[in-house]
Give the backbone structure.
Amino acid sequence: MKKYIIYTIAIILTIAGSAQAQFIKADVQVSGLTCSMCQLATEKALKTLDFVSDIKPDLNKNVYVVTFKKDKNVNLDQIKNKVKGAGFSVSKLVATVNFDDVKITNNFQYKYRGNTYQFVNVPAKNLNGLTRITLLDKGFIPDNNFKKNVSEIKAPGYKTGQLGGARVYHVTI
């Protein structure tokens, strides 16, 4: 019985200790939108994602503010793919993440819910509270910016978005 109680406490502490961040929302700028029908098609595609709770489009800026469900695994590639499937492309994605005392440095890799986020060109600092992180990977920025970044960003896996066979997102603050 003692082993069972100790094991249960260890699991609870592990779960509590790993919850150091929560994705809150993302500002998704979409290129190629020309009318309200384009906007509606993209919004409809994004609404099919199970981790999305709300979407507020701004046609004047071609931006969707996508709010995420609490405690759901957010997949940024799925957002990109839904926009692409609607016939458009993501030109910028800035996620708002609620961090709980995460110490970062340049090229720091943060693992969260099965994904790796590598911080690029950032100063050493503690992230506490709401922090906006900008994705730098292919498909999240214009192609010409990505090509320029490939020669400038020396972070492992930047060109492919893969590191050791696993997906790695490159982000900056």
